[in-house]
Amino acid sequence: MSGLHTIDTGVLDDPAGAALSGPHAVFARRHGQAACYDPAVTPFAALPAGADTQAWDDLAALVGPDGRAVVIGDCPVPAGWQITWQDEVVQLVDATIAVADEPAAVPLGTADVPEMLDLVERTKPGPFLARTLEMGTYLGIRQDGRLVAMAGERMHPPGFTEISAVCTDPAYRGQGLATRLIRAVAAGVRRRGETPFLHAASDNTSAIRLYEAMGFAVRRQLTFTVVVAPS
């Protein structure tokens, strides 16, 4: 059983940077002080704490003119960059989750991407692109052959795996599908000897209550910012 008092959660302060320097190094692009995922995989990027103008210039070189990135942390965004979205996000870590495999869940792969993208477009769980499923295992539930719910693995700092893209078709909500999929994804993470964690918008109190009831514990708040590089 995981427990916040028994694991070092420090790498979660910069989950993208820790992942790109560790298990997700295969997706990393680097220039100077900046790093980012392959933009076809996910827009997350990493800057050093207290990033200066040079670090932002390095990120601009990585993403290119008008390139988009998601940065985590409280780094002031310099002039010339456009902020298109910013929010406070609550980070929650597995403390006492009752994990369980889900008999109705099926692994999702490349052939399922069009349906996954359609479900994401209708439910808006967060960034999900054509190659995001390469970041880890994704599970889905189908009803009458149609993909109606999914969840999977995103950032992968050493010893941890983020559960993300949790979404359910509006017509199928209220059946506990998301909870069942989170428990199933968490079961796979636990089997690897890792600890599941996830993020929720700080004003999404219903989701936070659900995650806490499942056995996640709030660790801290982080600022997520979507930025566009200078032209």
Jot down its keywords.
5 helices; 11-stranded mixed β-sheet; 231 residues; 11 strands; alpha+beta; single chain
What would you note in describing this structure?
- The protein has 231 residues and is an alpha+beta fold.
- Helices cover 23% and strands 32% of the residues.
- It is built from five helices and eleven strands, in the order H-E-E-E-H-E-E-E-H-E-E-E-H-E-H-E.
- It has helices at residues 15-20, 53-63, 113-123, 177-191, 205-214, and strands at residues 28-31, 34-37, 44-46, 68-72, 82-94, 105-107, 138-143, 146-153, 160-168, 195-201, 216-228.
- An eleven-stranded mixed β-sheet has the order 1-2-3-4-11-5-10-9-8-7-6, with helices on both faces.
- The longest helix is centred in the last third of the chain and has 15 residues, at 177-191.
- The chain is globular and about 50 Å long.
- The N and C termini lie far apart (49 Å).
